[in-house]
Amino acid sequence: MLITLVTRNKVVIMAINFDNALGIHPQALALREKRSEVLASNLANADTPGYKARDLDFQAVLKKAMPQSNALERTQEGHFSPNDRLLGATMMFRNPNQPSLDGNTVESHIEQAKYSENAVQYQASLRFINGRFNGLMTALRGE
After folding, report:
1. Which site in 29, 31, 86, 99 is 20 to 30 Å from 129, CA atoms measured?
2. Distance (Å, rounded) from C-alpha 86 to C-alpha 108?
């Protein structure tokens, strides 16, 4: 993206690469959003017989994405692929501590804790992105 700055007596044109400027944070934010949907689905199905709790392997995605590049592999938006990958993350089943007799593996207290933890991490990613944009704005203003 090219940005044109007009100061008192000169015009400056700068190129900004948002992928480099923001790092992995936009992808992390998207993955946290999808994980939130998966965890909410688990909670919504806590009383569904035979329902198996799912989760995303967020850490594995970050480990793969960090050394190679800042881009995560994407599947079709909003769909599960045949190999159960979502935004580059593997969908996994959660192993319950106390499985129910009807085959449901959702443990509400664990899902609520995971959902809350994910919400805090989502907010942290938003703050990182906001900080990066504030830094870019400061650089553009020349402060």
Report:
1. 86
2. 23
